[in-house]
Amino acid sequence: MPASGTSKTLHHGLQVLELLVQHPSGLTLTEIADGIGVHRTVAHRLVKTLEAHYLCRRDRFKRISLGTGLVRLAEPVEQDLRTLARPVLEELSDSAQASAHLVVRENADQVRMLMIVEPRRAPMHVAFRSGQLDPIGRGSAGLALLAAAPPVPGEREEVTRARERGFAVSKGEIAPGITGISAVVHTGRDHPETSIGLSLFEAPNPDELGRLVVTAAKRLSTQLT
């Protein structure tokens, strides 16, 4: 249910877009209606409105998918941060031969994957989808952000440990079998709280990888502050 004081129609329209993000090959109108819990007639009006703004489109089989209008809307989002972060992430990814990620704090309870760069020469690597939301208390990215704040009663041992050594390590918290290593990026007031890190299948030497991540975080911090 939408929050009190908000637009129910807009809420449902955004639900359609979020649903289509999860199904890049597209959905039928009935699947959309069922997916967001509305009548097919309501879903039809929502999709027609989104189509008029090029936010979704139908193929010749009448399956509905995201539209190119979203590219224009998304381009300005944290553009400076993403532009500066890309070469840092690319260098980190190539050095560690692992996927490198940039994560921002979305709200008090969640973090969002803003960007991920995959290694160019690694035989295997971890793949995530940009934009995904995760709980701030799970995964190295969120733990690193929590560790940047003063200690609080009852905090996880991993947060305390991250504060002591300057980077956070998690194992299997976002995806089974995946290790995350992240450090906070000091961005100043113009950007959200941010962390940079690595996601990989195996981390035989987390301290060495942690040093790479901290170096990358400091490099990006210097450019942003």
UniProtKB/TrEMBL annotation:
GO BP, sorted A to Z: negative regulation of DNA-templated transcription
Annotated GO molecular function terms are: DNA binding; DNA-binding transcription factor activity
- Organism listed in the record: Amycolatopsis eburnea
Keywords assigned by UniProt, alphabetized: DNA-binding, Transcription, Transcription regulation
Residue ranges constituting the HTH iclR-type domain according to the UniProt record: 7-68
- Per its record, how is this protein called by name? HTH domain-containing protein
Task: Extract the coiled-coil ranges from the record.
Answer: none
Write down the Gene3D superfamilies for this protein, in alphabetical order.
3.30.450.40, Winged helix-like DNA-binding domain superfamily/Winged helix DNA-binding domain (1.10.10.10)
